[in-house]
Every structure is written in C-alpha cells, then in structure tokens.
Amino acid sequence: MYFMVPRKCAIFGVNCEAIPQQVNFLVDESVNCSKGSTAVISYLHFFFEKYGLGGEQVLSLHCDNCSGQNKNNFVMWYLIWRVMKGLHTEINVHFMPAGHTKFAPDWAFGLLKKCFRRSEVSCLDGLCKVVGESTAVSHVNIPQLVGREDGSTLVNTYDWQTFLKPAFKLLSGMLKFAHFIMSHQHPGCVFVKMSLAEVEEQRNLLVSREAFRALADMPLILPTPGLSRERQPYLFTQIREFVREDKRDVMCPPPN
Fold it and tell me: What is the superkingdom listed in this entry's lineage (predicted)?
C-alpha cells in the first residue's frame, strides 16, 4: 500500500477561535471541483451560512500565505462582495509573517492526525467518526462532508471567479501586504498595509456600481467531476482488495 494511491480525500479547516471549534471539510476526490480559490471561497461561504454565530458584524480572518488558495484577488473580491451585500460591516484579514507558520487550525489538525494514525478508515463515514473522536471531550473538531462517495453533493462549489470578475479590478502588488481591511463605509475599497505599525493605503477594486448591481444573487454551481477514467479501474484492480469487504463497492466500485 505504501507505493499505491488509495482513494483520496482532501481536508480544509475553518477554525473559530472564539468557541473554539473547527469545521473540517472532507472533500472526496469524486466531488473535488477545484483546489484553488474557488473551493476555498465556496467552503468559507458555506461556513458563514451554516456555522456562523449569527448576526456577527465584524469579522477577523487569519490565514496562511498560500497564494493559490488564500492570498489572491478572488478571495479579496469575495470579502468585499460580502461587505457590499451587507453580510458584514467590516472584515479584517491578516496573513502570518514569514517564519510564523503555525496557528489554531494546525493545533486542531494535529489532534486529528494523532487520532487518525490509531484508526482504521475504510470510508468517508469512518473518517467523519475519526474527526469527531479526535476531540471527543471538547468537541473542537467537527466533520463536514462536501459529498458522498457516489458523487452526490452536500456542499456546493460555486464558480466564484467567473461571477466576480466583471465587477472588480486586480489589486496590484498584493503579495507584499499582510493586512487587509474592508468596511461598509468605503464600499468596493480595501485598505492595505505591510505591518500593523504602517499607515493604511486605500485601494479601490470596484469597476463600477453598475457592474456590481448587474451581478446575479449567487454564482453558478460547478458540476462534480466524479472519479476519472484513470482512477476507476485503478481503484478497482489495485486498491479494492485492501478495503474492508462491506465497503468495497462504495470506495472502489466497478468501472463504468
């Protein structure tokens, strides 16, 4: 098994330190529409809709510096969109400085990994059980399936990039900044600075009010890809024998 590639499941965590609680999105490869900002925004949007405390106006986000997922224009556009839609009055985004790469989600992931190493997992339901048992007393880690093994969807992935592009402009040089502020008092704008001690610099990212008003209420839902033609026979011929017998048809079904 060390040299093989079993059925893959990605994980994306959103940690609310005030509770504390971390929602762990479990993304089976059959429903993994994107690994970039589109997926991150979709899971973050679902988190606000289902797991938000309700009525919160000021939001503070702390993220790592992964430009493909977090630190990019699409995420900034989405947060400005939330403020302009009245879902928050202010959003503060802080990216960790170089050399400081550990924060609250890593603590919760560490507890999850410790439990996973002692467990036998043959399906998504088994992985959900591991996530819950990793913090059985404090209930910090909670599982959220993005979809089932058959490709059915529980958390939609939206085409946020295509949706937001007509209304917003690129933020030049954004990778050098570490702190971003969006406020309802300055719709369409973001205040940026490289360190907390610096004076904020205002950037307008809105194309026009008319372009924003022309946006639909929500983006289109991206279809789930399902298992690829290469993965179906591979899982069936190479991995199936290592899966618990009652879960073989679920995890490694016969190729279509």
Answer: Eukaryota
